[in-house]
Amino acid sequence: MLMFGETQSHDTAIATTQKSNLNKTYEKTNFNKNKKKKVKLVRVKYGDTTWDIAQKYDSSVQQIVNDNKLENGGNLIHVNDELKVRPHSGKSVPNSIQQKYDSSRSNYDSSQTANVNDSTSININKETKSIFLSNEKEAKEWIAQRESGGSYTARNPSSGAYGRYQLTPDKLQGDYSAANQERTADTYVKARYGSWQNAKQFWMVHNWY
User: In terms of pTM, does the model score above 0.85?
Assistant: First the structure.
């Protein structure tokens, strides 16, 4: 049989235990609710990086990588990807992981810059080549018009030179076809002048090439 004081103390202990258990249940429920609310689906926009998203939503690169099973340390994400983002567990991201991400991102950005530079260089080279070929064609035609008026059958009685580019018979080797005249003229000019433009410059000074 409990005395009055003992009964009061016993009731107080029960109330304290019940309150403690209630608080724990409330905290657990509240934690789960908050945890559920904090998970966000973030759609990747143009220019976003995993690091930017982590900073914006108080998360970490490693947390996002783990939650979304991203490859390459999370340095390759695509526009319109949906990422699950939630605050990290409270532990700081190991420097080694963050450094690995930063290094990967830096290497990727550098490679993209190199690709852009290579692409620009290729475009410039193509444009330069196109201009050169256009000038070559113009110089070749310029010489043809002055040598024969553009005729594949023009003949010079005194020298025996024949055709559109007035080539000597020994160069044409008996083949007077238009195709052979073109081929032989290109070979001759390349060997002697390097280009039709150089041949044109020579012709303008000496009236022959």
Answer: no
The two structure tokens encoding residue 32: 């789960």
pLDDT value at 89 more than 70 = no
d(CA 36, CA 48): 24
Structure tokens at 125: 């080279």
Could you tell me the pLDDT band of residue 131, with boundaries at 50, 70 and 90?
confident
Chain position carrying tokens 């620009």: 120
Q: Could you tell me if 180 and 172 are in contact, meaning their C-beta atoms sit under 8 angstroms apart?
A: yes
What dihedral angle (degrees, nearest 10) is formed by the CA atoms of 70, 71, 75, 81?
Answer: -40
pLDDT at 101: 54
CA distances to 3, 13, 21 from 6, rounded to whole Å, are: 5, 11, 23
- Cβ atoms 83, 64 nearer than 8 A: yes
Cβ count near 70 (within 10 Å): 17
Taking CB atoms within 8 Å and a gap of at least 24, the contacts of 146-150 are: 146/203
Summary mean pLDDT of the chain = 77
